[in-house]
Amino acid sequence: MAANALDAELDLDAYWMPFSHNRYYKQSAEHRSNRLLARAEGSYYWTTEGNKLYDALSGLWCCGLGHRHPKLVEAVKKQLDVLDYGTAFQMGTPGVFKLAERIAEAAPAGFEHVFFCNSGSEAVDTALKMALAYHRARGEAHRTRFIGREKGYHGVGFGGISVGGMVANRKMFAAGMLQGVDHLPHTHNLKEMAFSRGEPDYGTHLADELERLVALHDASTIAAVIVEPMQGSAGVIVPPKGYLKRLRELCSKHGILLIFDEVITGFGRMGKPFAAQHWDVTPDLITFAKGVNNGLVPMGGVIATKQIYDTFMTGPEHMVEFFHGYTYSGHALAVAAAHAALDVIAEEDIYQRVNSLSRSLEETVHGLKGEANIIDIRNCQLAAAVELAPIEGKPGLRAIRVFEEALKRGVLFRFTGDIIAMGPTFISTPDELSRMTEVLRDSIRAAG
Ligand SMILES: Cc1ncc(COP(=O)(O)O)c(C=O)c1O
Question: Recorded GO terms, molecular function (predicted)?
Fold first, then answer.
């Protein structure tokens, strides 16, 4: 492996890395081998050692169109020559109005309004606030509870961790959690659904647990249910057949808003603009981020139905209707990148490509069945995961070893617990997916 002069020059202490094992990373050059990124293009990164890595997770689920897409780069450069930052409060730009229109057009019928922020976490907070304020404006201020789901990931704001269901993200911050939140059970059941291709047959009935929560708390206290249609961060947990439809029915029956957190599933990965269209289930609010501009400049947002928006549009017209927003809401550079991303999605026929590539992904990853230490393989459109048997007494260690072995072989995977997640770029070829899978096979064998 090439020597890494750049690594040797760095003092690593000051940077507190997010969601990372800081001490392990900083401990030795060996632990950092191939883990300093120097450049990126298309589906690949190059490390400071000069090694090329296939990006098996599209950044962090955000760069589906490939890194440094020339059209996106050009759009942002052009924008910089015209307007850098334009304040969003009481002001606007033509670009941001046009972008909202385009996103609303891509969304399911009835979604007509877009609120911009800068990340998935902010999008979730925004959607939760919209839900509370909506009920209040309708005279149902008693609807204050949120229902999330075990193993759910909705970012790291206090709203997101409260409705989220990952214990590691919650336990340290228990004192700051939103009150009155409850959770649906997760749908990850290896005994019943291991090695399912696409949506598992088992688990539809788990949506009915909402009835139990309604019986416990009373519907009149519940503002919204929030779920990821496909759970990405917990390791690609695919909704059971009919599960989302059932949730929709129950929410409608009880006057509860349904929020789809589409931060990962929005803008391409499901082979449609949104998972709502892939499953033909229409929520009341949709959160998005990541793919909206291919991760080029931070951006997130919430898409609301006309009915929700209109509910806010009351009172004196000179008054602010929703006391919420961010300094960088609809940042000009993020907007420029998003317009270019939407252009590229159309010009490069991305949804159709994702649908066809998804079939290749399913074939290739399920070909790993039978390898030692694999206890599940699952897939959902252009997302897949391989779950490994934990090493006794050391959960997570096997996946770290696989991750490191794969880096040596030129592929960057994502691991969460003992799960290896894959979310390839939309521009990948079937051959690249096969190569990725073979690297995973070799890495699992080498990790032992
Ligand atoms: C479903 C979902 N919601 C929210 C978030 C948080 O997004 P961010 O990291 O941009 O705050 C993520 C991030 O992966 C996500 O997957």
Answer: adenosylmethionine-8-amino-7-oxononanoate transaminase activity; pyridoxal phosphate binding
